Write the C-alpha cells for this entry.
Amino acid sequence: MEEKILLNILHEAQDKHGYLSEEVLKKISKKHQIPISRLYGIITFHTMFRVKKQGKHILELCGSPSCLLNGAREIERFIEKELNVEIGETTKDKKFSVYKTSCIGCCDGAPAMLIDGKPYVNLTIKRIKEILKELKNASTKRN
Ligand code: FES
C-alpha cells in the first residue's frame, strides 16, 4: 500500500480516537494487512502522530529558523514553566499537550504556533499568557 494512503488511514484513525493506541494500530494492521512495524515506522517518522492520550488542547510550537530567530525559545521556556511540562508532555490535569513542530507556514508572523490546529502568530510572552488564561478558563467552564 502506498504511504500516502497509509498516512490518510492513520490521520483518520487519529482524528477519530484522539491518538493512535496500540489497539487502534493492531486493528489497522489486521484490516489492511500491513505489518505493525511499518505503521510504527511511519508514525515515529511523522511528528503529527500521537501514540499517547492527549491533553484537551494541543500546543505545537514552531521550532524552525524564522521562529527561532524571533524568540521561539523564550516562548517555549515560558510555556514549559507556566504549564510545568516539557516539550512532548501532557500536563497533569490533562488540559494541555505541548509539542515542537517544524515550520507551519506562518514565517511572516514568527514566532508562531498551532493550538488545536489553528495558527497563532506574532507571539509574545504577554500574548501567550492571555491565550493560556483563555484556554484554562474555557476548560474550567466546560468541565
Ligand atoms: S519558521 Fe516558524 S512558521 Fe515558519
The chain has a mean pLDDT of 93. The radius of gyration is 17 Å.
